[in-house]
């Protein structure tokens, strides 16, 4: 069976420098990509997440599911770089308003 791929699908499949991010806020999911080797700063990532989910007027916490399924915080440059570098192949990010309590990956 001969499969045809769009150029973007082929490049994404073979491009190891791209990390696909799947972020969840409430019941809404968003997807975007980051450069694995130059992910940037946490502050820029925070602004991107807030802008992508249209929640710029809220103070939120961001966490991610590591390879063991544990929910870890992304709240500084070190945690952010660790999250991006450990993503394989997807970085699952969970966003929650600060006054909603602890982050829960299933909610």
TrEMBL record:
GO terms for biological process: centrosome cycle; establishment or maintenance of cell polarity; regulation of cellular localization. Residues 18-98 form the PB1 domain. InterPro entries: PAR6_homolog (IPR051741), PB1-like (IPR053793), PB1_dom (IPR000270), PB1_Par6 (IPR034868). Its main location: other. The keyword Nucleotide-binding does not apply. Transmembrane segments: none annotated. This is Par-6 family cell polarity regulator gamma. CDD domains: PB1_Par6. SUPFAM superfamilies: CAD & PB1 domains (SSF54277). Signal peptide: none annotated. It is found in: Cell junction; Cell membrane; Cytoplasm. The keyword Membrane applies. Pfam families: PB1. SMART domains: PB1. GO terms for cellular component: anchoring junction; apical plasma membrane; cell cortex; nucleus.
């Amino acid at each position: 069976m001969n499969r045809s791929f769009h150029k973007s699908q082929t490049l994404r499949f073979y491009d190891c420098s791209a990390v696909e991010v799947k972020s969840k806020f409430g019941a809404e999911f968003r997807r975007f990509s980051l450069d694995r080797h130059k992910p940037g700063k946490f502050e820029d990532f925070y602004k991107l997440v807030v802008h992508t989910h249209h929640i710029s007027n809220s103070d939120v916490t961001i966490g991610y599911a590591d390879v063991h399924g544990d929910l870890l915080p992304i709240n500084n440059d070190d945690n952010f770089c660790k999250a991006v570098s450990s993503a394989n192949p997807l970085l699952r990010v969970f966003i929650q308003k600060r006054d909603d309590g602890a982050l829960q990956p299933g909610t």
